[in-house]
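SEVERITY: medium
COMPONENT: batch folding queue
REPORTER: lab tech (J.R.)

DESCRIPTION
The queue accepted two submissions in a row. Attaching both inputs and their returned structure tokens so the on-call engineer can compare them side by side.

ATTACHMENT 1
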Amino acid sequence: SGIGKEIALELAKAGAAVAIADLNQDGANAVAEEIKQAGGKAIGVAMDVTNEDAVNSGIDKVAETFGSIDILVSNAGIQIVNPIENYSFADWKKMQAIHVDGAFLTTKAALKHMYKDDRGGVVIYMGSVHSHEASPLKSAYVTAKHGLLGLARVLAKEGAKHNVRSHVVCPGFVRTPLVDKQIPEQAKELGISEDEVVKKVMLGNTV
């Protein structure tokens, strides 16, 4: 859904064979079917990015189906908002697992195919304005998005000799299902209206 879906659709329009990986197999299949109906080539893959075995088998399936992996878009993410003093350690670890561990595991699995014969490829991480700026209630998210910059920079140095490049895309405020979910949550926590969350926090405080 959201940015990930639109990236998949645009890559397909550009002629790429696209694999949509999602925890929700039905959701992945729906996007793949939309691409195929438009004349493109796509498959849906069930994947929990925090599970190394699931990531490895999913990536290998894509490589087997399409013959190679040229582009990895690391886009999995959720949002849990709370002030630091109330942020549970379980929620903190969940956020890091999906955003950072997931990026690491999918990268590692894809590199096996990109490094083969130095064929190369591109790894694109979905960062955020929060890769550079902070925002109240989002300690885990901001930390994770900063972490993607570090991972991408290391990959740029290590991957160069194998013709692999890395990038971090850092969009600002985008009205996706993930954002829509957190607007009422932040309004409740901060004691302000949802409109004020958008104007004063999401736009005024970060972008």
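ATTACHMENT 2
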Amino acid sequence: MFGFIGAGNIVTAILTGVSMSGEYDNAKIGVYDVNKGVVDKYSALGYRTYNSITELVGDCKVVVIAVTPQMIRSIVEELKGASVIVSLVAGITIEWLSNNLGSTCTFFRCMPTLAAQEQLGSFALSHCHKATDEQINKVTKFFSSCGVVENVEEQLMSKVVALNGSAPGYFYYLSRIVVEEAVRMGFDENTARRLFAQSMKGSAQTILNSTLSLEQLENKIKVHGGTTFAALDAMQSEGLENCVVQGLRACVNRSEELGRL
């Protein structure tokens, strides 16, 4: 049984996707949150809810922590009875978890994305050295019910947020810029939104399916003297590549800072 401590946006997205899969019974998933209104909502949906973290830890074989880095430090004692912990907490390392919660527990770290609510989640997963194949398969299977799971080395987990956890924000930001400019051109917003979103969706699927490199895919559409060439040339001239790189580095730096708070 999986039990979630914290039921904010990311947990809502995950549980929505898991429920859509039909692979897990709501009654066999536990939820605890400090907000009683949130707990009542999940109770009405058939989830098993708890009045305390200690109660959940005592009842659930896999405890998923989805709280802030600041809060996890305040609930350490309540977590110590858990046998398997999956941390969704940004910046908190497996070493920190082991040092503070004890070596008898098996630890996983997971960086999810909100697209789990569409069963299109992107999950980066790492685990401690003592995790068994059975435990790894159990955790992987759960998150795979609402997305794709990639195993990532622990030392890269504080960096992977730049590739998946924060990445939807980049796409929404770019989409807003494109759609707003399209409206200025004369398109209605909904048409522009649908056209650009479908273009991103198709491009993403092509990246996943193609054996070509990203540069080769770019060059296939970037014909010299054509419209795409003109667009990308202007973007490069304005320093887009450096802006993206600096954004990724800022994301990673903040993730590492959160682990030190």
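NOTES FROM REPORTER
The first helix runs from residue 9 to 21.
No errors were logged for either attachment.
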